[in-house]
Amino acid sequence: MKFIVITGGGSGVGLAIARDLSAHNQVILVGRNEKKLQLAKETLGDNVRYVAGNLATISGREKVVDFIFKQTNHIDVLIHSAGIFPTNNQDNINNNLLSHYYLTTSLQKLFDNSRVLIVTGNPQAIKMAPICELQLNDMMRAAWAVTHKTLLMHLLADELAASQTTVNSFFPGDVKSDLMPYTQSLTNTTVPAGKLLALDAKFEHVTANFFDDNGQTVKLSAEKYNKSVAVMVLSNYIPELKA
């Protein structure tokens, strides 16, 4: 039985992944909406616990981290499914980048031969969108989010390598969620790649890879996405990287 933490676990992609994993594993759901988390726990059963906190804030992360440390001394899998469709630049940075980075590094002592998974966007967008610091409209903010999450994968894969912890990212497919009007109208509520990448033995030593919604590797440009570029770009948002 694995110990798994899923952010954004009260609805949408996170809940779909939790549904697949909670039957035979201990799962902590993290989210902002306590009512949604409570309903998810009631639906999924006794293997599920939850903690409500805003991961985009320091106090919210501290609350979540403190709860998790009281529940376990080891995390097998951390899945970053939380995120927003941003309407301004700072919300994008706080919710879709810094929340992932700081929660992961705050839990680092609990990782040993563990897996970290980052839910991200469409493979074509990640391949084609330039790494650009401008966020002038919704499309540019969406491109910023998926490219910077991919760079974050490379950064964390390097930072967690000493603990034999892998860091990968994946596209969950088009899944019904409250993220935006388009996703609210979808009917799909399954994310098979989540369970596959979290548990399958063939991914045990695979790190810094991006996968599609079927769990197949998506080849990305090594010149565009690598550790050096990640440090250079993400140091604009994470002061510790400049030290």
From TrEMBL:
In terms of Pfam families, this protein maps to: adh_short
The molecular function GO annotations come to: oxidoreductase activity
Keyword list, A-Z: NADP, Oxidoreductase
Presence of keyword Secreted? no
Gene3D superfamilies for the chain: NAD(P)-binding Rossmann-like Domain
Family membership noted in the UniProt record: Belongs to the short-chain dehydrogenases/reductases (SDR) family.
Write down what this protein is called.
Answer: SDR family NAD(P)-dependent oxidoreductase
Give the originating organism. Answer: Leuconostoc lactis
